[in-house]
Amino acid sequence: QVQLAESGGGLVQAGGSLRLSCAASGRTSSRYAMAWFRQTPGKEREFVAAISRSGASTAYADSVKGRFTISKDNAKNTVYLQMNSLKPEDTAVYYCAADPVFGDHEYRYWGQGIQVTVSS
Fold first, then answer.
1. Which of 24, 54, 55, 72 could form an S-S bond across to 29 if both were Cys, CB 3.0 to 4.6 Å?
2. Which DSSP category does 87 fall into?
3. How far is C-alpha 36 from the chain's CA centre?
4. Residue range 47-77, pLDDT digits in tens
């Protein structure tokens, strides 16, 4: 079992930056691939980025490639999502997730989510 807690969300102007953090407690994050997903009202939750257990491999949705960077500090049991050049369409609730398997799929463990709002 692993518990996930997101932080770092908020309101930012278009073109700005935010860094989300996800702290994992319970079993260490080095046992899991970690990912970020996001969801807006009326839409299905969508994959944003993932990082493998070791941190050696990453994957991104086309919509964020080149603007967002996922990273992981296994010593701190924390995964980050650096979001640059933010656009209004990035506005969503962002969820951290953990699973033994890396990639874009339904993850086993989820955080509560955190709001990111990008104003135009």
1. 24
2. -
3. 3
4. 999 999 999 999 999 999 999 999 999 889 9
Distance separating alpha carbons of residues 80 and 96, to the nearest angstrom: 9
CB-neighbour burial class of residue 100 (10 A; exposed 0-12, middle 13-18, buried 19+): exposed
What confidence tens digit (pLDDT) does each residue in 99-110 have? Answer: 999 999 999 999
Q: Residue written as tokens 């996001």? A: 38
What the block records as the tokens of 71 is: 């990273």
Q: In 10 A of CB 13, how many CB atoms? A: 10
CB 29 within 8 A of CB 18: no
The C-alpha atoms of residue 119 and residue 80 are separated, in whole angstroms, by 22
Q: Which residues pair with 115 in a beta bridge?
A: 93
